[in-house]
Amino acid sequence: MKRDNDLIRSLLLEIEAHDDAIFLCVLTDGSPDDERRSYYHLKLLVDAGMLEERGKFGGSFRMTNYGHDFIEAIRSESIWNDVKGVVATVGGATLGIMADIAKTCITAEINKHLGVGS
Length: 118
Prior knowledge:
Layout: H1 5-17, E1 23-24, H2 33-47, E2 51-54, E3 60-63, H3 65-74, H4 77-90, H5 95-114
Antiparallel strand pairs: 1-3, 2-3
């Protein structure tokens, strides 16, 4: 299965919007394909250090500080589109590199707002 960065962003925003610090996603044999796809991407976020999986049998996820930092960096739709544009130009990037690109875009926006480097 190919990683879907838009789905990753959507999942992080969904997790952050929950009132509870724990996000549940448990699969069964009859789980629909979209739930299986989401679960796979949650596991990728665990691999990347943005989520931790909790519980004896898994399926309980907690966002890490790095996950919160990443979602802050890509929260803006325009920043997210800029990041995706850069990634498309170079042919792909890791989530960590995407976070770095987003931070660079945010820094540029802040500098523009403050009149730095004009």
